[in-house]
Amino acid sequence: MSKTLLGRLLVTGSACAIASCGGGGGSSFVASTPPPPAGTKVCPGGLTIPVGDPCPASPPPPVSPAVFPGVTTDTDFSALGLEATAMNTSASALKRDGFSVRYDAATKGYLIDLPSRGEFRFEKNSEDSSYWHGFAASGFYGGTVVDVLKPVSTNPEIQLTYTSFGVTSGYYTSEFGFVAFGQATPSSAIPVTGSATYNALVAGRPLDLNGLVKGSAMFQFNFGAGTLSGHFDPVLLYNGVDTNLGTYAFTNTVFGVGSAAFSGQLTHSGTSTLGSFDGLFTGPAAEELMSRWTAPYLNPTTQQWNEMFGVMVGKKP
Q: Which pairs count as long-range contacts for 165-170, CB under 8 Å and 24+ apart, including other chains?
């Protein structure tokens, strides 16, 4: 995920330009701005161009994308996040509280709150078919890079309506994390009969190297019996190589009849260490879901077991 330096603050000054220098009673003065060269003019913003040329149009202000176009009133979304303070943090030390995402109707903006920084307005600087890319700044060292998954029918990764997630990292600081958010299903709308399978997209990062984790997962719910099974199939993207990390089976799952939430652990045949996940249904009738997770993984470079974390978002086929 590339980062673009948005600006540097340069401060210069001269005491002699404000007041007299030395003790001899010299007069004060303020330096005037020299006129532009003959035949030129200065446009708003300081650009100097030939006098006969039109000034370029000002760039449009950053936009807070309509993540969920159907949401037009003040709305607090359900949010599940995990944030590392730095590389080589243990999964048990990840921050799990302090995440929120809401829509503010007055400003038509999406406001994100993270453990590492106060609430900020998410604004799009660029986009591709899968994500909106943004940068939130709060002081010179307070920048946060944010990518938000597009919950649209044309997204090549997964087509969602009620669920999204953000990938975050500090620009000058070492925090990085994920926050899944969406329109939670009311408890009264959770199915209590039948079964359903949800196919999910996996997004994450390892804690010991600067790579990415992608992949898929499958959640199989029996709503009538109150049971959950499934599996998690992550792939590590590192140094231009994709490494299949194997299948993690759901175990020790917790889900009851009519429950809006679920959780469980992740088991891998190569280690006795268990991962974990917890999640919520999203959409008016549990059409989608979101979850956060942590898991052990075998680092293909060191051949040592370490840890990774992230989120999953999914829907019924």
A: 165/203, 165/290, 165/311, 165/313, 166/101, 166/112, 166/122, 167/1, 167/131, 167/203, 168/83, 168/114, 168/144, 169/1, 169/3, 169/144, 169/145, 170/116, 170/143, 170/144, 170/145
Domains of the chain: total:
1
Question: Residue 148: which of 98, 218, 101, 189 has the closest Cα?
Answer: 101
* Type of residue found at 212: L
Q: How confident is the model at residue 65 (pLDDT cuts 50, 70, 90)?
A: very high
Domain that includes residue 143, residue range: 75-315
User: What does 173-232 look like in DSSP terms, one character per residue?
Assistant: S--EEEEEEE-BPPGGGS--SSEEEEEEEEEEEESSSS-EEEEEEEEEEETTTTEEEEEE
**Average of pLDDT values for 112-116?**
95
Quote the mean pLDDT of the chain: 89
- pLDDT, one tens digit per residue, over 226-243 is 999 999 999 999 999 999
Say if residue 16's pLDDT is above 60: no
- Our measurement of the distance from residue 225's CA atom to the centroid of its chain's CA atoms, rounded to an integer in Å, reads 35
In a domain, 241, yes or no: yes
DSSP assignment letter at 34: P
Distance CA 27, CA 24 (A): 9
Residue 85 lies in a domain: yes
